[in-house]
Amino acid sequence: MFICLQRLEIIGCWELISLPDNLPKLEDLELYECDKLISLPCNLPRIRELRIEDCNGLLLYRMRFRVSRILTNLR
């Protein structure tokens, strides 16, 4: 569905529960104030930057995604 998407920023989407799994070219993901978000895609092969703030439903220890060696920034 979003196979060419390279950057995604979501702010204040309080009802968002999950993101689509098919994001093969995503390099930069920013999530802010997504209280009901409980999961991230399992496979993000090109992710370089990942920023997550105030996403209280997301339990970091439950994330099981594979991140390639090109991740340059995790906040």
TrEMBL record:
Protein name as catalogued: Putative leucine-rich repeat domain, L domain-like protein
Gene3D superfamilies linked: Ribonuclease Inhibitor
Naturally occurring in which organism (per UniProt): Helianthus annuus (Common sunflower)
Matching SUPFAM superfamilies: L domain-like
InterPro entries linked to this entry: LRR_dom_sf
